[in-house]
Amino acid sequence: MFIDSLRKVEFFMVKGYKALDEDMKAIFGDGMHYEIGKWYEVDGEIKPCENGFHFCKKLEDTHRYYDLFHSRLFEIEADGKIMEASNTKMVCSKIRLVREILPEEWQTEENFLKILKIDGRAI
Asked: Could you tell me the pTM of the whole model?
């Protein structure tokens, strides 16, 4: 229920985005299988890139960590302890997949332009 970072600590549930493989398993880490609507909680202290559930704050940032054409994207809710791992990635102690974001929802010209701009490519 709180966000821990060098800049701020806040108390609220956070919405974000997570990519999984085609079988809804974690691409990095232990290959955990997820189900929509089910809450998951990590044991121990969360630590970026070591322990916890990782997600992006913005949909367009997910491409930095995942091959979006071979992944499934999900809108998530994060709760418990939430920590900024970087400007684009967060880690939390509790997570739930809210819904799948279908390719036709995110594969838009506007999103591709955001990704190109983030990558520093000329548009």
From this structure: 0.80
Mean pLDDT by 10 residues, the chain (123 residues): 46 88 89 96 92 91 82 94 91 96 77 59 44
SS (H, E, C) 54-110: EEECCHHHHHHCCCHHHCEEEEEEEEEEEEECCCCEEEEEEEEEEEEECHHHHCCHH
Domain range summary for the chain, segments of one domain joined by +: 2-118
Distance of CA 54 to the CA centre of its chain: 5
Q: Hunting for tokens 């079988």 — which residue is that?
A: 23
Structure tokens at 40: 């998951």
Beta carbons of 22 and 101 less than 8 angstroms apart: no
The pairing of strands 72-84 and 2-4 is: parallel
